[in-house]
Amino acid sequence: MRTIGSVDYEIHRVDGSNRESSSDCIAIEEPLEIIVRYFKDGEWIIEPLMVTMRTPGDDKSLVSGLLFSEGIILDKTAIDSIEVNGQNKGKYDVDNSLIVTLTKGNQLDLKNLQRHFMVNSSCGVCGKGTLNAIEIAYEPKINQEGPMVNIDLISQLPDILKSKQQQFANTGGVHASALITKEGEVLHLAEDVGRHNALDKLIGHVRCNDMLKPIEQFVMCSGRLGFDIIQKAVMSSIGMIVGIGAPTSLALDLATKFDITLIGFIKKNKYNIYTGNWRISETFGD
To answer: pLDDT (tens digit, 9 = 90+) per residue, 183-242?
Structure first.
């Protein structure tokens, strides 16, 4: 079944030595241009922020989540509007350019932001320096009182996540991030071809709709857990991240520094608690 973020393609399916014409549902990947408009020194200034590859759908949540994750805004009131910019449509008749207008008093420090993007994308960064830069710039506050999650729930999470992944069921080609209660209820799920985009879409939606309560909830991601995923969690004071895949060393360093519980490599009745073991209880209500 096709959704806004997918398209049907004509293909050939091979089964053994048999080959036949068929169709397949494919996840769309198109560039999204993000532009920021802000008021400075008595005039409105328009600056191009970035172009990111994404799966169309929930674009406004993606943009707002990106602004939260990169420290451009701290509260949803900093966004005055997010609107389509011009007639920039892609191959699949999807709007591919958005302009974000910040409320007066909120400005864009483009030099610092570009430096931050460069650090995130560079493979030669110093891990210790990057962690310290995040702490100095954003002073994350991770609540140490929770969430307290039952040890048996973790093994069930891949099936819980998969049951909510509509685009993945259709295409098999997208990642997902979900906000889940300590009891295992999925409050919201976002999907995208990019792991980081899926998390930005999730963060944008739940923060703009006042849904995020880190002491009672955690985030689960479908893919591996890299530094960028943990950084986005830190920026929203999320204390627990669960992933089906493996973490990287810098992700573990970041999780350790900010007391985040990091869990990965979930298989049937098996998983690894890399950091923050104390948030996993053996009985409900602990």
So the answer is: 999 999 999 999 999 999 999 999 999 999 999 999 999 988 988 899 899 999 999 999
Q: What residue has token string 């200034």? A: 45
Per domain, the residue ranges of the chain are 30-127, 138-281
Residue 19 C-alpha from the chain's centroid:
39
With residue 272 as reference, give the H or E element that holds it.
strand 270-275
238 three-state secondary structure: coil
Taking the C-alpha atoms of residue 176 and residue 142, their distance in angstroms, rounded to an integer, is: 23
Whether 123 sits among the annotated catalytic residues: the reply is yes
| Total residue count of the chain as it appears in this document | 286
How would you classify the pairing of strands 186-192 and 175-181?
antiparallel
Question: SS3 of 17, please?
Answer: coil
Alpha-carbon distance of 217 to 183, in angstroms, equals: 9
The whole-model pTM stands at 0.86
Catalytic residue among 123, 126, 208, 221: 123
Say which CATH topology domain 30-127 has. Answer: Ubiquitin-like (UB roll) (3.10.20)
Handedness of CA 193, 9, 60, 87 (dihedral sign): positive
Strand order in the sheet with 97-102: 43-54, 30-40, 97-102, 79-84
CATH 3.40.140.10 fits 138-281, yes or no: yes
